[in-house]
Amino acid sequence: MKRILVVGAGGQIGTELVPHLQKLYGKDNVIGADLKDLQVEKLREGGIGEKLDATDANAFADLVKKYKVDSIFNLVALLSATGEKMPELAWKLNMGALLNSLNIAKEFKCSVFTPSSIGAFGSSTPHYKTPQDTVMRPNTIYGVCKVAGELLSDYYFTRFGVDTRSVRFPGIISNGAQPGGGTTDYAVEVFYEIIKDGHHYTCEVPQDSYMDMMYMPDALKAVTDLMEADPARLIHRNSFNIASMSFCPKELFEAIKKRIPDASFDYDIDPVKAAISASWPDIMDDSCAREEWGWKPEWGMEAVVDDMLAAVRKKSVK
Ligand code: SER
Predict the structure, then answer these.
(1) pLDDT band at 317 (very low <50, low <70, confident <90, very high)
(2) 3.40.190.10, 3.30.70.20, 3.40.50.920, 3.40.50.720: which CATH number matches 4-170+215-241?
(3) Is 184 in the pocket of ligand 1 (CB under 6 A)?
(4) pLDDT tens per residue across span 27-79
(5) What separation in Å is there between the alpha carbon of 294 and the centre of ligand 1?
(6) Which helix (DSSP H) or strand (DSSP E) does residue 147 occupy?
(7) 11 lines ligand 1 (CB under 6 A)
(8) For residue 2, what pLDDT band results from cuts at 50, 70 and 90?
(9) Does 318 score more than 70 pLDDT?
(10) Domain residue spans of the chain
(11) Does ligand 1 come within 6 angstroms of the Cβ of 119?
(12) Ligand 1, from 13, 80, 84: best to mutate by most atoms within 8 Å of Cβ?
């Protein structure tokens, strides 16, 4: 990877992936593109920022030509809960950005990274130690896009030789840009709410609903390690299970309460999020990622709670 275009760069992952890539490959070799002017401005403060609607194939290809891009990181997506409110838009946006990424990669000989998700699985999937290769019948439009995206990306690899790679991300916990419209968002939101006066958080996900989660530094490392991995070792491509911790709201809130004794929590269950979280794995088996490209996470829940509380407190006093 020498010249990288990140599309959808202003979101939760892009906001931190862009600086991570800049550190590894140099500021001049990373182009962040986003649809929203405000995000483009922020990208320009730290490096190269461009405005792009990733569903516009010509504009997308123009950027790839302009910067002589050789790697596309496609982060464009409507997440699971928002997707259920606007299924048609979710399909158009999620699949449109991916199809353009793949076609442009084919034409300009780029590699492509697109995240898949725990959302690619559904209620008929084994929930405990969910295998790498298993039943994938998701119950959300977000998941339908992820499975279709995995298949399409593998198809572009086998049929056209496009170097496509992907991981199935757990819910990502971070203290940069906040996620929006996801089912796992509670595990980020809670830190922002609990440090406010009142120290209270109302959770929309059932207290005993286990989902895989991951701290951003591990997620970033996963992306760059996979993209740098020796292709000869990759038996799978789209997409690898990766896991680092799994917990339910009750466990996370107990860990927070140990640190903030007057923190209080209650539940106002969102039926859509409850159904989605119940359909996703409790914990994935990531042994293929470990074997094929050396995946090894560093962060567990207790350390994440300490780090998130410190980081979010610091932000709130700025
Ligand atoms: N974080 C995503 C969501 O909750 C899952 O990949 O929609």
Answers:
(1) confident
(2) 3.40.50.720
(3) yes
(4) 999 999 999 999 999 999 999 999 999 999 999 999 999 999 999 999 999 99
(5) 24
(6) helix 141-160
(7) no
(8) confident
(9) no
(10) 4-170+215-241, 172-212+245-282+299-316
(11) yes
(12) 80
Q: Where are the alpha helices (DSSP H) in the chain?
A: 14-25, 37-46, 57-66, 80-85, 87-108, 141-160, 186-194, 216-228, 249-259, 271-279, 287-293, 301-317
User: How much is the pTM?
Assistant: 0.96
> What's the CA-to-centroid distance between 118 and ligand 1, angstroms?
7
Supply the pLDDT for residue 77.
Answer: 95
Q: Other C-beta atoms within 10 Å of 291: how many?
A: 13
Ligand 1 contact via 115 beta carbon (within 6 Å): no
Task: Report the alpha-carbon distance of residue 261 to residue 315 in Å, rounded.
Answer: 21
pLDDT band at 1 (very low <50, low <70, confident <90, very high): low
Residue nearest to atom 3 of ligand 1 (CA): 182
Q: Positive or negative CA dihedral for 124, 130, 134, 137? A: positive
The angle formed by the CA atoms of residues 88, 91 and 93, to the nearest 5 degrees, is: 105
Distance 62 CA to ligand 1 centre (A): 30
- In this structure, the residue with its CA closest to atom 2 of ligand 1 is 182
pLDDT band at residue 113, thresholds of 50, 70 and 90?
very high
Average pLDDT over residues 260-287: 97
Q: Is the CB of 143 under 6 A from ligand 1?
A: no
Q: Is 279 in the pocket of ligand 1 (CB under 6 A)?
A: no
- Reply yes or no on whether 67 is catalytic: no
Check residue 180 and give its pLDDT: 87
* Domain 172-212+245-282+299-316 class in CATH: alpha beta
d(CA 281, CA 268): 22
**Percent of the chain clearing pLDDT 70 (strictly above):** 99
- Ligand 1: does its nearest atom lie under 6 Å from the Cβ of 169? yes
Catalytic residue among 67, 128, 142, 186: 142
Please identify which residue in the block is written with the tokens 């050396």.
294
